[in-house]
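Bumping my old thread because nobody answered last time. Still need a sequence for this structure:
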């Protein structure tokens, strides 16, 4: 058990150090403006993922044993499309990300 704890903690420390190194490299290479644009892009992606996961994540896993798989897959895909388009439209309407839409 101690070995599992040590492996988990050491993996998290290495991932944190890699993320810190990545942030330093991005800041030095892109500058403050590039890092800000990248942060807005990540914010938009996380908003879409959070809305998609509201019905498409754990809720689908909970419903799988109780319903037909084809119905669940079609509802999951429909929800992903609807929520992605709606969140992207809202971010465009409110001007959260000016340069990321096609």
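Sorry it took so long. Here it is:
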């Amino acid at each position: 058990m101690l070995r599992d704890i040590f492996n988990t903690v050491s993996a998290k420390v290495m991932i944190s150090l890699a993320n810190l190194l990545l942030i330093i490299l991005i800041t030095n290479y892109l500058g403050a403006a590039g890092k800000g644009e990248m942060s807005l892009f990540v914010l938009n992606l996380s908003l879409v993922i959070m809305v998609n996961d509201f019905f498409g994540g754990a809720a689908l896993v909970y419903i799988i044993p109780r319903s037909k798989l084809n119905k669940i897959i079609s509802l999951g895909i429909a929800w992903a499309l609807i929520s992605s388009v709606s969140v992207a439209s809202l971010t465009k309407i409110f001007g959260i990300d000016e340069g990321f839409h096609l």
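Helices lie at 2-56, 58-63, 69-93. Let me know if any region looks off to you.
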